[in-house]
Structures are given as structure tokens and as C-alpha cells.
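Suppose you are handed only two things: the residues of a chain and a line of SMILES describing zinc ion. What would the bound structure be? This form records exactly that question and the answer produced for it, so the two can be stored side by side and reused later without any lookup.

QUESTION INPUTS
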Amino acid sequence: MTAFLISFAALTAIIAVRYLLTSALIHGLVLRRPDAPETTPGAIRQELALSLASSAIYALPAALVVEAWKAGHTLIYTDASALPWIWLPLSGLIFLLIQDAHYYWVHRLMHHRRLFRWLHAGHHRSRRPTAFASFAFDLTEAALVAWVLPLLTFLIPIHVGVLLFLLIAMTATATLNHCGVEILPRRFVRGPIGGWLITATHHGMHHERMQTNFGLHFRLWDRLMGTDVMPQEPKAG
Ligand SMILES: [Zn+2]
Ligand SMILES: [Zn+2]
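ANSWER OUTPUT
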């Protein structure tokens, strides 16, 4: 029990500090741009409060995984040659696809008019979010989402390095998707690979309209379900 509490406290701190550093960095960079979103200290304070509380919710199942891993009960492995090398990228992709599918449907459910207020209103406080909104969830939303990746570590083998890479990549994309401006090149965002990924342009539309663009990583489910909308490109000439 003591080991679990230490893991829980340490992970809460790590998750919170990771959030504070990345959001502050990206927000600071975005503020220098002429198209930076207008923000108020009050809105950022709310985003900070929700995000710090969410850190503890996310740390709970993560601490369970750390303790289970130490006891040899998860499928997280450390020897990269234990499975064929192709499994390294494949396992990462499978984790992302499962998390994305789960999030798409939970997200649509959270936008139901009877549930929105209880589950998801916190994330939508500001129409044009800032990087600080990247981890701003109602505690109920955090509880619905935080357990998915931890559960997968008991079901699907994944190398510890791949898992860490996913966590870092997710932090980066969540922060960029909420920072209020698209910093990725237009050609990539509209290109054959970027066109399947959720970026700030896509997720910004979700915060603006709230009726479309529910995906987390990929535009797959939005496209399949007819909820995928991107802003019109200005016509050349
Ligand atoms: Zn969002
Ligand atoms: Zn939403």
C-alpha cells in the first residue's frame, strides 16, 4: 500500500509538471504570433485548476500499472529483441487506434445534451482554447478516459520505450491541438498523411462548433461517421 501511495504521489507530480512545462512553453511561443488567441487570466486559471486535478485522476490507474509492472503482472517488456522488431511500431499504432476509437465514442456521448454539463463542459469553457486547455477535463471525463491505456498494458505486449514515446507524443499533440493556432505547415495538414491526423485546425473546429470533429488522434472515425469538417481553403487567384 505504501509503495502504491508513493507511486501515486510521484506520478501525480510528474503528470502535473509535464503539463505545466509543455503548456507554458507552447503558450509562450504562440503569444508571440499576431494570430495568437485572445485569453483572459481567469480562463487560464480555470484550465490550470481542472488540469491539475485531472493529473491526480490520471495518476491513479498509472500507479496501479507501475506497481503491477514491478510485480510482473503487466505485458510491458524491456528487452526490445523479445518480440519481432515490427511489433515496436505496430504495438504503438494499435494502442493509439484503440484509444482513438474509445475516445471518439465516449466524446460523442459526452456531447449529449443531458450529459454534457456533467462530463465535458469543463473542457469547453473557452471557445478558442489555449495550450493550458490540453489537459483540462472535468473529473468525470478524466475518470472515463484515464484507464484505457493502463488497461491495455495488461492485454497487449508493449515495450517500455514505445509506451514512453506514446506518452510524450500525446502530450505534444494535445498541447499543439489546443494552442489556438496551427503551427504545422498547411501542406502537411492537408496532405496524404497529415490529412488523417488531428491537428489544431481540426480540433479548433470542434471547440468552435461542438457538433463535429470528435476524434483524438486520427480522423478515421469522424470520416466514417460523417462528423469530419475542415475549414474551407481560400481559393487561389
Ligand atoms: Zn479539446
Ligand atoms: Zn468536446
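WHAT STANDS OUT: Residues 107, 111, 120, 123-124, 206 surround zinc ion (ligand 2) (CB under 6 Å). The mean pLDDT is 94.
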